[in-house]
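For reproducibility, we list the full input for the SN-glycerol-3-phosphate complex.
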Amino acid sequence: MKFFIDTANLAMIEEANALGVLDGVTTNPSLMAKEGISGKQNIHHHYLEICNIVDGDVSAEVLGITFEEMIKEGEELAALHPRIVVKVPMTKDGIKAIRYFSEKGIKTNCTLVFSSGQALLAAKAGATYVSPFLGRLDDISTDGLHLISEIRTIYDNYAFQTQILAASVRHSMHIINCAKIGADVVTCPLAPILSLLKHPLTDSGLDQFIKDSKKMK
Ligand code: G3P
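The corresponding predicted structure, in tokenized form, follows.
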């Protein structure tokens, strides 16, 4: 399972990359705005900076909502760097845009997916990645993991090549459960990845080893 970091913060991306387990980056307009990035030139420059840090796919979301806007923006984004993935929202125009990009060999990430039907359409259109939002479904008392599991079954039934990118992942149990279900990728902030490191028996065991190692010197 690939690990992507879901942030536009360069320091956090560098920290995650230094761990040696990072496979890519996802961003969205909210994450870019949080970093104060605005204006086409600055946005493009920021995506290039991310591509220079991480040797993996970098999702860059289109801001336009019509087919024509998405195509124009997406082609500009894809031309920035070969590892840019054009992130497109799950709408009628979005699906048309994914089909267009797919025929041009441009990688896509279909975002804001909350149902199996939407995921099926994204795969039919030729999306490289589909992003079901796990945590946001949990937020409204719906089983987000069940959706990931249903999409896995549907894609396996027909050998769709679209990768399931579990998004809106909030904690380490989400990551473990996505791995059990067979999601291809999880994207989350740095904290849930770091929390995979932690176990109280590791801490107490290490304390004891450090104490005993002093007896050996
Ligand atoms: O990038 C999409 C998704 O991962 C956002 O997560 O936590 O805002 O629901 P969240």
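The chain is about 55% helix and 15% strand. The chain has a mean pLDDT of 98. Both points were considered when choosing residues for closer inspection.
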